[in-house]
Amino acid sequence: MMASEFWNQLCQIQVGAISRDHWNAVVSILIEKPQSVDKRAAGQVNAHENHHEKSKIDINLSKLSSEYCTGERTDERKILFQKLITRKPKKFCDWYRVVIQEAFSVVFIPVTSEAIEDTSTTVAYKISYLDKPDDYQENQHNLVLEVRPGLGVKQEHWLTSLLWTTIQKWLKDEIIGSASSLRLVDLEKYCSEYERLKNKYAGDLVANWSETSDPEKSVHEDIGIAAYLSCLWGEQKVSFVDLGCGNGLLVFLLNSEGHKGRGLDLRRRKIWSTFPEDIQACLLEQAIVPSLDTSFPGVQWILGNHSDELTPWIPVFACLSGASTQYWVLPCCPFTFTAKYQRKNGSVSVFRDYLDHVTQLGKIAGFQVDEDRMRIPSTKRICLVGTPDQTCQDYETRKKTVLDYVSSQMKNFVPREKVERVRNCTQIGSDIIQAIVKCVVKVCLETENLMQKDFQEDGGSNTSRTWNAGGELTLHTVITHLQADKSIDLSRLKSECGGLQTLLKNNHSIFHVEKGRVKLRVPSSAKPMYAAAKIKRRPCWFHENHPDGCLLQDADCTWIHT
Fold it and tell me: Are β-strands 473-474 and 517-520 bridged in parallel, bridged antiparallel, or unpaired?
C-alpha cells in the first residue's frame, strides 16, 4: 500500500501563489518555534544529536521516512528528531516528534515510548502546498492538511481551530525574521530552573506583595531573570552588584540561591522590609553618580535590570571594576551618559538603534557582547551580556580606551530625584478613575452579549442567571466616547505613563485589555494558583455596579458580595 493511501484529508483551501522562500519561512517557525502554535511547549531541542535522548526511544528515521513519504528521497528531504520541552511539567511531560520536510510539504510525526509518559493521543499530520492545477480548474493552488487514521477530538480541534488558521495567516502576511529567545542558555535547564524557582518563591511573594506594581508581572519577571542568570552562570556561585535594583527582588532571589550580591537604588522600597534581615543588609539606599572613578572591585558581575540612566554606564563600570568583570544589562528607557538618547539611524526603531549603541559601548570597553531575548512578561526583553574579549588589548589599554572615550562624551550627570512622582495612573484621583471606569462599562454594555450561568440554589433546585458581557471596543472608540463626556477631564491622563490603557489595566478585575482593545472581564470562580494567595479582599465591582449584578454566586466569586 502506498504511503499516500494512509492519509485522510482534514482541511483544504484555495490560496494564491506562494514563493519557496515564504513557504520555508512559515515552516521554519512551525519546526523551530513550536511554542508559537502549541501552548504546551516552551520550545524544542535537537534530540538527534543527543545520544542520551536517542537511547530513550528506539527509532528508525529512514523507515519512518519511507512509511510517511512518497517517492525516492532527494536532497530536499530533511529529517529531524526533536524533543519538545514542556511549559508545565506538572501537567505535561516533555515529548518527541520526527519532522520530515520536503519542497512544499512538511510531516509532523509524534513519537512515544513506554519509557516516556504519553502527553496526549495524537496522530501524524501533514501540511502541503499543491501548486499544480487539478483536473477541474486551471491555475489553482491548494493548501492541504492531512492526518493519519485515529485522529482524536482534542487534536482535531487544535489542528482545525488553531494550527490551520495560523498557517493561513502566516502565508498571507510578510514573515519578518526575529531572533530566537534563550540562545545563550540551555532551554531545558532554563525551563527546569524557572519552574523550580517559581514553585519555591512565587506563592509567598505574590501573596505578600506590598508594592503598587502588579505582583504577578513583577514576581514572574524577576524569577525569569534569576533563572536565566543561574543558567548563564552554571554551577558556580558568583558575586554581583545590581545597579538600580528597584524592589530588590532579583537580589533576594539570587542571594537566596547561594550567590553573593548587593543591590543599590536611590530610593528604599517598602518590600525591602519584608525580606530576611541578611537580604535587607544587602539592599542599600544610595544614589549612584557615575564618574570615571566609579567602580566595584572584586565583583564578578554587574547587573542592570531596566537601569535607565545607568544603562550606558554598565559596560564602563564593568571595565573599570576589574579585568575579568562581566556584565548583564536589560535596556529599557534610552539614555546616553548624560541625557536622553537621540536616534542616529533612522532606518530602524529608536529602541533597536539604542541597543546597537549600548552594544558598541561594550565593544569599546573591550567586551564581546552577545544579545539574547528573554522570556519574561515585559515589552523590553532583549538583554546584552558582556564578556571580556580575550582577543582584545591588555587590561590597562582597555581602561585607557574607556576613560578617553567617556571623557570626550561626558558632562555633569544628574541622577533622578530621590522622591519620584508616581505616574502609573494610580494617583490622579479616585473621582476621575471612577468616572472613566463607569463610562467605559456603559459603552461596552450598549452592545448586548448575553451569557447564561446555571447554578444550584440552597434548596437544591436548579436555576440560571443571564448576564450581559457587553461588546469589545478599540481604545480609539473608548477615547471618542470619553471626549464626548464633558464631565471627564482627560488632561489629567496626559502626564501618566501609558495613559488610558494603563488606567484600564490597573482595573483588571473589571476589564480585559489586549492589543489595543478592551472588553468586560467575565467573572470567574477560578481561585488564584497559589494556596497562600489572598481572596475576597475587596467588594465585587460587578455585584455592586453591573445592571445584572455578578454572574457568580457569593460562594463562587473571589470578591466580596455585600
Answer: antiparallel
